[in-house]
Amino acid sequence: MSVRKNANFLDWRSQPTNSKVYPHFYQRFAISDYEELQDLNLIGGITFEKTYPDGVYHLRSVPSAGGLFPCEVYIQSRGIKGLLNGIYHYDPKEASLVLLQEIDKDGVEHCFDEGKKQKGLMFLISSVYFRSSWKYKDRAIRYVLLDAGHQLGAIYAGLCVMGRESEFVFEFDKIALNEMFGFRKDEFFTCAIKSAEEVDTTVNKLRQNLSFVSGCDYLETNEFIENAYTQTVNYEEQSFNPTPFFANIPKEQLKNAIINRRSIRAFRALGMEKSEFETILDGIFLFAMKHNIDIYYTTHLVNDVQQGLYKNDELLQEGDFRSKSRYLALEQNLGGQSGVTFYFTSNDVQKYQKVNILSGFLAHIIYVKSELLGIGCSGIGAYYDDECKEFLQTKNNILYLLAIGR
Ligand SMILES: Cc1cc2nc3c(=O)[nH]c(=O)nc-3n(C[C@H](O)[C@H](O)[C@H](O)COP(=O)(O)O)c2cc1C
């Protein structure tokens, strides 16, 4: 199997635009003008600018495979002081909310369970897949779901700083919502977060569907991805409140970690402490197992922790697997020079979208927790699939690799 040998030649000048821009006549509201939303930009705002000879490149609070940013975030707001009740598009570059439609007795709730009115914020995450399939072709289906999971994690972390609750929702009428938002097949919803109180009134369907606005400046459709989405979009899943992963962390500290989070490019091969490793992993395995995700990992450089291959917290095999993990991560040094390399896996094919999204979510929690301890982290979306399965001796699908260390 060779992902590397089949790598397509990429002309970066042909990269599609990576953020959706609504036409100029849509009303825009600066997030900083609303007291209750002061920290809202933590959910995906620009946190770093890199200047290259050919222009400025923006990095965000959320990581993204290849830096291609396929996700968009829409927010329905009711009852936020000073802000019109409405459906908004979040514009990370302008740090603003773009009003798509005012709401009253109608709203997106119509596509959720019993359609009960939600007073507060509802976040809807979509993927504009061509931004990613432009580079990764069919494999982009995995990347857009992992990216959606990181986006979920970034919204969750931002809401923690804002002192707001989160409820994760995977089961809703995504197809109807795609239609309501005027999406064609190139953009689709994958998951949502409610940070709202339920009111005992049912909400009507939007009185008018939103206009189609393209998520890219041009588009090459990919039938494989569109079919993969529609074949896996419907599954049963109760909404739930996630584990309070950041419960004991002072808000200012969490905020700084969110802003400073970056993907590490190379490790210095220094060890981390066992206590740091345990802090990072606190609650991760329980959450993962509850959602049918098995996390394998190879420990390379953790003081007082046996080098070896583990599954959840069980040691499967002692040994130094640095060169193996480097190889499996498509021969990227990150995989072998790390303190620990994780392998997110699952056998749940029914909930393919959810297990991928939640792997991205857990990876995001690990990113932020590592940052809090001054430990580096990087997602690794490129790996040798079959060889990983063979090494881990599992029939599970391999969803994602992640490396942490110094
Ligand atoms: C799903 C996913 C897969 C990634 N895969 C790799 C990878 O294989 N190799 C790598 O060096 N970085 C990888 N990254 C890191 C991205 O390159 C990085 O997030 C992006 O360039 C933005 O930089 P930042 O995370 O520092 O903001 C991945 C990130 C994500 C979210």
- The number of distinct β-strands equals 15
> What class do helices, strands and sheet pairing give?
alpha+beta
Instruction: Give every kind of bound small molecule, once each.
Output: flavin mononucleotide
The CATH H-level homologous superfamily of the largest domain: NADH Oxidase
Q: Determine the oligomeric state from the structure.
A: single chain
Number of helices: 11
Low-confidence stretches: 1-5
User: What proportion strand?
Assistant: 25-35%
Alpha-carbon distance between the termini? 31 Å
Biggest sheet details: 7 strands, antiparallel
Q: Order of strands across the widest beta sheet?
A: 1-6-5-4-7-9-8
Q: SSE string, helix = H, strand = E?
A: EEEEEEEHHEHEHHHHEEEHHEHEHE
CATH class of the largest domain equals Alpha Beta
How many structural domains?
A: 2
CATH architecture descriptor of the largest domain: 3-Layer(aba) Sandwich
